[in-house]
Write a structure and sequence with these properties.
Length: about 550
């Protein structure tokens, strides 16, 4: 395998000014001097030597001595060292041992905690896909993702991780999850047409970005950026070039340290003069008196208290999956009063939970948070619904589980539940478990009892997803000969206009003509509460 990406990136020199999203497929092919049959193996090997491997260059790491210096280079530590020297002069060996222990504990905690944070942050370099499917010399072959080069023709499908930045040339219902790059919580549908030159990263829908996940469909594209030249590489580069800045806490501690230093020096000198000139003590005795008072004034425990407090806060943040790289940043985060963000998934957990649902008869709540199946259906006052009412409601909403392309999984070690697919669809599965399906086996039994026959995936153009399910296993176990039901879910403003009837009295067999104005108003009320609204129809 070739060496890592060179220090001066040839991709930057050759393609740095190219706006791939604004070019046609033919123009991209010409610039990369490639074709639909892909590169021939020899040309691919040459490019691998020229451009380097498709891997992120790890940032230079400080050695142990430099990390030690970062922890010691603090005015409070200097004061403690001075106190140690003065205590040694007075032969107060217990005091010397205590202060040394404080310094050692303070430095050790800082190095250990920041080391853990660095390891977590370094995980970004492992986000590139290990394998990739490419076309070379007209044949489709699987290679190590590290061996991909600019100009390769790559094929991706649902479940794959995009191995490099790719300009799409063919797509079939292709969608990718770009939350890690743009903060967009919903999958982004891809196409092959050029987009405007000034388009931002999130609007370049003819590009698929390295390390993002393919959530739907499949596609083929030209590799336009690998390793450090991919968007994920640019982010890694910015993080590695991060400049150390002083937080408000560090500045305040420095100011306090200077004040203590000056104050101690003034008191020590004053004590020395008074003891020698006024009390007629000899110079040696007066000096020891001055040193004793100076040591007593110095707050030896302050650095340890500050470091331990920050370390405990860092541990608390880490237990909630938030990585803080530098200890003092904890105080800065705690001082924030407002955080502004333009994307749903940037600062949130990117989890969805069904909290409320509305029928023609009334409004209902679902208790619980996250994907854990812990909660129940409640009336508008928060009281649990009786079992027969829940059964009638679930008969109306069973399409939430049937017309669903997501899954749920429980971590064996932590017991935490996570989404396998779109968060919105996963939240509907959790709703099903809270309303009587009990567990994942219940969901699977429900889906097998009414097998899928056909369907139309969600697309931004029509804003809904529909699936046709058999009302029984049929003669072949796949629904043959059984009655069919079309389950639809999607944007309320689109589906309300398409419906002609509505269920009344929460009984599936009883219907009345659709009251579109009523449902539009109810959707508006739910949206006003900050909830994402979804219509369930059949």
């Amino acid at each position: 395998m070739a060496s890592k990406t060179p220090e001066v990136n040839p991709q930057q020199e050759q393609f740095g000014e190219v706006k791939w999203h604004n070019l046609s497929i033919d123009e991209c092919m010409a610039l990369q001097t490639t074709k639909a049959d892909g590169l021939d193996p020899q040309e691919a090997a040459n490019r691998l030597r020229t451009f380097g491997t498709n891997e992120l260059t790890p940032p230079p790491k400080p050695g142990f001595l430099m990390k030690l210096w970062y922890q010691i280079n603090n005015i409070l530590i200097y004061i403690l060292i001075a106190a140690t020297i003065l205590s040694a002069i007075l032969e107060e060996w217990k005091e010397v041992a205590l202060i040394c222990a404080v310094v050692i504990i303070n430095v050790t905690i800082g190095i250990v905690q920041e080391g853990k944070a660095e390891k977590a942050a370094d995980a970004i370099k492992n986000m590139l896909a290990p394998k990739a499917m490419v076309i070379r010399g007209g044949a489709q072959v699987e290679i190590q993702a590290a061996e991909i080069v600019p100009g390769d023709i790559v094929k991706i499908k649902k479940g794959d991780q995009v191995p490099a930045d790719v300009r799409m040339i063919e797509v079939s219902r292709l969608q990718t999850d770009e939350a890690m790059l743009t903060g967009e919580s919903m999958p982004v549908a891809k196409h092959t047409d050029p987009v405007a030159l000034e388009s931002g990263l999130g609007d370049r829908k003819n590009l698929a970005f390295s390390a993002t996940k393919v959530t739907e469909g499949e596609g083929t594209g030209i590799v336009i950026g690998t390793g450090d030249f991919a968007e994920i590489g640019r982010i890694s580069g910015m993080v590695s070039k991060e400049e150390d800045t002083k937080t408000n806490l560090m500045i305040q501690l420095e100011i306090f340290g200077r004040f203590v230093s000056v104050f101690v020096a003034v008191i020590a000198v004053a004590t020395l003069l008074i003891a020698h000139l006024e009390a007629d003590e000899d110079l040696g005795t007066a000096f020891k008196s001055a040193v004793s008072i100076a040591v007593a004034i110095i707050p030896e425990g302050l650095p340890a208290v500050v470091t331990i407090s920050l370390a405990l806060a860092m541990q608390l943040m880490a237990s909630n999956n938030a990585i803080i790289r530098k200890l003092p940043a904890i105080e800065t985060l705690g001082s924030l009063s407002t955080i502004c963000s333009d994307k749903t998934g940037t600062l949130t957990k990117n989890e969805m939970t069904v909290q409320k649902f509305r029928t023609a008869k009334g409004a209902y709540n679902i208790s619980g948070v996250g994907y854990q199946p812990e909660g129940e259906a409640q009336d508008a006052n928060g009281s649990a619904l009786p079992g027969d009412a829940v059964q009638r409601l679930w008969a109306m909403f069973e399409g939430c589980v049937l017309n669903n392309g997501a899954g749920l999984a429980q971590e064996p070690k932590t017991g935490q539940w996570k989404s396998l697919g779109y968060p919105t669809e996963a939240s509907l599965l959790t709703m099903g478990m809270k309303m009587g399906l009990a567990n994942l086996d219940g969901i699977q039994r429900s889906q097998k009892a009414k097998p899928k026959v056909n369907g139309v995936p969600f697309a931004s153009e029509h804003k809904f997803m529909c699936q046709i399910h058999a009302d029984g296993p049929g003669t072949d176990g796949k629904g043959a000969g059984a009655p069919l039901t079309c389950h639809v879910k999607g944007a309320a403003d689109r589906l309300i206009k398409l419906c002609k009837d509505q269920v009344v009295d929460d009984t599936l067999g009883q219907t009345a003509p659709m009251d579109g104005a009523f449902w539009q108003e109810e959707a508006r009320k739910l949206a006003a509460l900050g909830l994402r609204t979804l219509a369930i129809c059949r």
